[in-house]
Structures
1.
Amino acid sequence: MRHGEVFNPEGVLYGRLPGYHLSDLGVKMAEQVADRLADRDIVYVAASPLERAQETAAPVAARHRLDVVADPRLTEAKNSFEGKTFGVGAGALRNPRYWKYLRNPFRPSWGEPYIDQVVRMSSALDAARDKARGHEAVLVSHQVVVWVVRSYVEGRRLLHDPRKRQCSLASLTTFTYEGDRVVSVGYSEPARDLLPSKAEASSRSQFGA
């Protein structure tokens, strides 16, 4: 599960920075997804240690009388632009000293290598599979790392256009296992009716993943 909407009035790329919590709408998203999952056979809930992920996981865990396990493998990808607005105008891209971070999009040069994201996310998935064999687990993480590990499992290249990620706020990307092998990947948006329109999302200045 990707976390819900974050309160970010300054419009910065918050990445792994502490202190970024769910907005009021984000809390509603988390509650709505928890309601949709209330009848599922969930026996394990884990989340990135970042506040927005922990807050998104809490209602799901509460519905099933479980604790939220903080798993650092589920955390956001490291990004050199953390704490800055990202764009050409008044954003970080206007400053030549940041251009070096854009030299290699295949790695990517601005942050944690894609393959490192795959390794740690795959490890978190495998751990959840082992904790919940015969049942279900929910892991709450962040857009880019969810999309990268999904791309790896589905055989796509890891370099991608961020605008084309299928991983909206509070969405579910489902990995189904037979034994130790992933046999299918699904996607759903239980909070779709709460998603802001593109215009609203822009005006709300929600950055990060």
2.
Amino acid sequence: MKQNYPKAEKLKTQKHIDLLFTKGKSVSKYPLRLVYVALEEGTDAGLQMGVSVSKKYFKRANKRNYFKRVLRETYRKNKSIIYDAIGEKPYAMMFFYQAKDKLSYQEIEQKTIDLFTKFKDAIQ
């Protein structure tokens, strides 16, 4: 599997974002949270992933942008776990960093792997 994050995988549709926050389910592994919802089978979307860092915890944009970059990178490197779980079914997901703690890249990557494994167990 290619380890990239193409434009087609980015969650941008307002309809899918609204669906996530109204009907989505979530799994957490402190300080990360993954909200997900299965899309209709006719949708040509595949997997769509969005990333968010709370302004409540990181007031300065440069800190938020740093953690968003780290989340996108850890997703990109470990997305094969999610693809193995969902197969061909389309999903919309939002990936959150929700704490004041400033974890290192290695800690965030390990938490991401644990979170994706937890997601895999939740949908099966």
3.
Amino acid sequence: MTGRIGVLIVDDSAVVRQVLSTRLRENPGIDVVGAVPDPIFAMEHMNKTWPDVVVLDLEMPRMDGLTFLRKIMEVRPTPVVICSTLTRRSADISMEALAAGAVSVIAKPTTGLKKFIEDESGDIVAAVRAAAASAQARRTRTARAGGPAPAAPPSPPRNRLTAAKEERLIAIGTSTGGTQALEVVLPALAPGGPGVVVVQHMPEKFTAAFAARLDTMCRVRVQEAQDGDPVLPGHVLIAPGGRHLEVVRMDTGFRVRVFDGPPVNRHRPSVDVLFRSVAKAVGPGALGVIMTGMGDDGARGLLEMRRAGAYTVAQDEATCVVHGMPREAVALGAVDRESSLALIAEVIHQHG
């Protein structure tokens, strides 16, 4: 990449191609190098000019987006942002696309398309920039390959773990690249450990499919959170897309509050909202983990958790798809320990 981000849009809707092209071209440093109606045209274009980022629809004529994504990843792995409709079927396919290597998903409704994309253009631009940043991070990791193996994480200080086992809780926040990261961390967790609450930046209706996918991969129970759900050992609650999630203390333990509200740090759900509630409700019995993602959501909330006595961990730069969120948390002094993705589950086990 030369400093400018070359984007190829692949979508069978002429309206989507037009609006996305206009919005992306309005942003400095982004060039739309092509906008085509299906993957066959895209392959012809890419034989001449390979883009830095592909914005890809999933349901198209002649070849579906998931098949095309897999072809891209076989030939030349390239950051791909999925632009998918808000349906259950599309959500399921989008989870397959993320597993196949897509960086993130942007949702589009089946009606009111032009107004929606115009209103959400900031999210689309951010997704493209994050995708481009993920390519730079991949090149950096490749250049570092062959270095020494990461050291095992030290045990959290005991003075941070004075709470009884039933008073402990794990809070995880992540964004771009987080779906892949969670598929590493959560399947490594053993049943019976502290309850886990997660905010993953993801569109409405997509988190249920994501939670269901994780549930098939994990020994712990994973589900999309509903208002009032208890936080139980061996269970993981994923914040639903489009709604905030807080942890509250009850006489019988911890429960989650799922609620509407304005975006925080441009996100709903927001990692900061979750972390701040955990700082207040759980305090020193909590472990906070901030993982890969663009922006600074979660950094201030993690600092509040640390000040409340919680142990706090950030995914290290070498294993992040995008290091933005962990980097901001480290810069604020919110982090006790940086850890590679492969060792985060071990840190969680030590906390339990």
